[in-house]
Amino acid sequence: MEVALSSVLVTGANGFVGRALCRTLAHAGHEATALVRQGGTDRADGVREWRHATADFAGLEQAWPQGYAPDCVVHLAARVHVMHDEAPDPLAAFMATNVEGTLRVARAAREQGARRMVYVSSIKAVAETDGGVPLAESTPPQPLDPYGRSKRAAEEALWRLSEETGMEIVVVRPPLVYGPGVGANFLQMMNAVSRGIPLPLGLVDARRSLVYSDNLADALMHCATDPRAANTCFHVTDGDDPSVAQLLRTLGRHLGKPARLLPVPPRLLRAAGALAGRAAQIERLTTSLQVDASRIRAQLGWYPPVSLDAGLEATARWFRATH
């Protein structure tokens, strides 16, 4: 389906998904504006930058550039999930950024004439594992941690805002996102494989849905510009769900350092995790989290332009060049 060129505001544009999205929008001919707290990141030609450095987007409406009226805002900025959160009240901190901050952006954009907001949520707003059935958009949400609960609360708040104002809302729930510039657990995993560290994961056949950053960016562009996406929730994946062991072996192949995987039964890993006080982390690692992304294919005709193997190869190439 051919869509008209649009003006899109991207929050969180300094993150690795935000940079990919701005580049994707610009290359497709859309007008992209990066809303960031700090400047200095290289951007694709034609991408404008708007700096607003307050916490949780306080004062955004008053600081809005005169005459700027985007068609859509893609909201990527968030307080992200961390393994060891040191905030006195983690849930309150997540809610302040991921719910109240999100609503400030939506309301300010709507006031300036934006017809649509694409909210980048997380599969953690639904669940941590799939229970044997890939998670669909209709799966009853049961988020477990403060991050997932805040993402789910933001989704609900935006649906209410849509009912009150008529603003179109599109919710996108990616699983684990990887690609050049990735950090957190995926980067640690590549570090371990690259250094030849033995990993006790050779028998872990739990399957995980992933999405490459450029694939997610392409899907977000479609959600921002396709009329058929209005007021819908979409799950987005690469469409190829490797087991944990397969993922590590593929990364090793692309890193030129074969993964050293020890054949430890998952039940022993869980027992060790319980003794070490890391039962939740080991449980997530050894249980499947597959995501059903058939809705976006059926409704928008969207398919990931980059294969899982090509995405992992590009990520490994970035890692080798920068580490």
UniProtKB/TrEMBL annotation:
<dbReference type="InterPro" id="IPR050177">
    <property type="entry name" value="Lipid_A_modif_metabolic_enz"/>
</dbReference>
<dbReference type="Pfam" id="PF01370">
    <property type="entry name" value="Epimerase"/>
</dbReference>
<feature type="domain" description="NAD-dependent epimerase/dehydratase">
    <location>
        <begin position="8"/>
        <end position="230"/>
    </location>
</feature>
<dbReference type="InterPro" id="IPR036291">
    <property type="entry name" value="NAD(P)-bd_dom_sf"/>
</dbReference>
<dbReference type="InterPro" id="IPR001509">
    <property type="entry name" value="Epimerase_deHydtase"/>
</dbReference>
<protein>
    <submittedName>
        <fullName>UDP-glucose 4-epimerase</fullName>
    </submittedName>
</protein>
